Amino acid sequence: TILKALRSVIYSFHMPLFFLLSGMFVKKGRFFKSVKRLLLPYFFTACLMFPIDCLLQNFDSISSAFFVNFSRMIIGSGYQHYGLYSQYSTPIIGAIWFLPALFFARIIYIQISKKINGVVLWVVVLLISVTSILIDTKLVYLPFSVLSGLSAIIFIHIGNKLNGGEVVVKPIWFLMSAFLTLITASFGELSVCCCIYPIYPLNIVGACAGTYMIYCICSVISKNKMMKKIFTWLGMNTLIILCMHNIQIMCSILLDFCWPLRLISMVAVPLLLTFLVTKSRFLKIAFGCSSEH
């Protein structure tokens, strides 16, 4: 029960946080850079998953393995949909659903913000968010987690509005944010991936409050030079860590016999693989980083 409550608290802000941070760096006219930073690592990771899947799963043939992995890549879902495209559950792509979801949300937000602004823009992004949630949960799932991304477009807009502003760390604001986060989490688990917002639009407030909490904690910890270097490295390589985490999840079945070792591998393996990736010029480019990064 405690773990479930903790999961609800973390999920109340952990994915909105990334959309919000992305919004702080939204720049118009960066379409190809978004392709490089988001879609390139998505497709590259999906291709890496194919041989791993062939080794770990019992497919009847290479063609059937190819079909499953190709459909998984195109569907791009982080969760299973039963009876949506066939009588069978759709294969999930895992944690990297976030990459195409963020890509489409960013591109659409950039195009909209070129045409309108002010209160009208707030209304439009809210309408897009609500409509996407209703379509995904009531009607149909769209490939590449497009609706999941659009449901979180409001966070991109909030992040964009915070861009250039100074975020002040105050204990009283931290406590208020913690209270709001706990309140919203008590209504149920927020899942951007599944377009589940138990108490929309208060989930938006709770997600922003949780993000502020993380900012405060990081601001205090990063005063230590060593921790600042660690946080900087993690921040620069977040997307690579996400992709490596996806591969680690696929391979985690090999450690089913020992759950403590499996738990340790969830952290150690993605970080180790990310470190190795950053040492290869080709892999850095494949995962959307500049060769100088």
Keywords:
293 residues, mainly alpha
Largest sheet: none
For the residues shown, what is the average pLDDT? 88
Briefly note the structural class of the backbone. Answer: mainly alpha
Number of helices: 14
Give the termini separation.
42 Å
Radius of gyration: 19 Å
**Helical residues, percent:** 55-70%
Low-confidence stretches: 82-88
Taken as a percent bin, the fraction of beta residues is under 5%
Can you tell me the overall shape? globular
The total count of strands amounts to 0
**What is the string of SSEs from the N terminus onward?**
HHHHHHHHHHHHHH
Please characterize this protein's 3D structure:
By secondary structure, the chain is mainly α. The protein has 14 helices and no strands. It has helices at 2-11, 14-23, 31-56, 62-75, 98-115, 118-139, 146-151, 153-162, 171-185, 202-221, 225-236, 238-251, 259-277, 281-286. Helix 1 crosses helix 9, helix 2 (14-23) crosses helix 10 (202-221) and helix 3 packs antiparallel against helix 5. The longest helix is centred in the first third of the chain and has 26 residues, at 31-56. It is globular, with a radius of gyration of 19 Å. The termini are far apart. 34% of the residues are buried. Residues 82-88 have low confidence and may be disordered.
